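Progress against Task 2.4 (sequence-to-structure conversion) is shown through the following example record, which the project officer requested during the mid-term review.
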Amino acid sequence: MEFHTPVISTETIDLLNIQEDKVYIDGTLGHGGHTLKILKKGGIVYGIDQDRKNLEIAKNRIKEAGFEDKFFPIYNNFNQLEEIVKKDIKQKIDGLIIDLGLSQNQQTGQGRGFSFNDETSLDMRLDPEKQDLSAEEIINTYNYDELYEIFSKYAQEIYSKPIIFKIIKERQKSPIKTATRLANIIRDFYKERHIRSNIDPSTKIFLSLRIVVNDEFNNLKNVLLQSLKVIRKDGIACIITFHSGEDRIVKQFVRDYSNQKIIIENKKPIKASFQEIKKNPLSRSATLRSYRIV
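C-alpha cells generated for the chain above:
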C-alpha cells in the first residue's frame, strides 16, 4: 500500500536529536513515518493512535522493517499522555511528537467522511468506538446559532450565514448523510453567487466540523500542559499544526511558559520547504514549533 508521508519530518527528527535507547512518544502515529525515522536512529518509540486501522498499518510496516523490538503501539488518544506514561512507560520520556494532520487514507478514503468525495459517510470521528458525536449529527440536528458558532469560530467562513440557511433548507428535503452531498451544497452556494476560491469552497467548513467532532483544540491544550509533566529535563517536544487556530494555541502556550518551564527551540516557526510542498501539496499549511523542558 501507499503509506502516508509525514510533513516537515526531517526537521522534526533533527530537533529531537535522537539518542540510542532513549524513549520517545509519537502521539499521532498514523502510518509510522516519523516513528520509523526515530527507530532507525536507535530510539525507543511508544506510538499512540486512536484509529485502530492506522495502528495496525503502522505495526505491520514497522515489523516488516525489522524494528518491532523497540516499538510499542498504544491504542488511545494523545490527550491521555500523562496516564499513558505512568501506566505503560513508568519513566519520563526524552521527546514527543504531535503531528495534527490526517493520514492519507483518512483524507481520501470512503466511509470516514473526511473526504469531499466520500459518497458513503459524513462521520469524521477519528475513533467511532469511543466517540458519539459525528459531523452528520451536527449538520442535521444543530440549529442556526449552533452551526454559526462552529462555522464562524473554527472555519472563519465569511459566508457562514447564507451557507447555513442553504444547509438547513437542504436537510429539510432529506437528511444530509454524505460528505459529497455537503461539499456540493457549499460549492453550489459559491457558484450561485459567482464567488471564486483558491481552494475547494467546502474546505473550511469540513475542517471546522472535524475540529468540533474530535474536540481537537481542547485535546491540543491538554497534551501541551501534560508534556510539561512527562518530558524529562532537556527533552524536546515537536508540535506540527495545520490550522491557524491550532498554531495560535501552541504559540500562546510557548509564550506563557517560555523561560519558566520551557525554552523555545526554533525562534521562528518552521514551514515546509518549496521542494517539499512541490512533492506534497498537503504540507503547504503545516507549521512546526518546538520547545525544550528546563
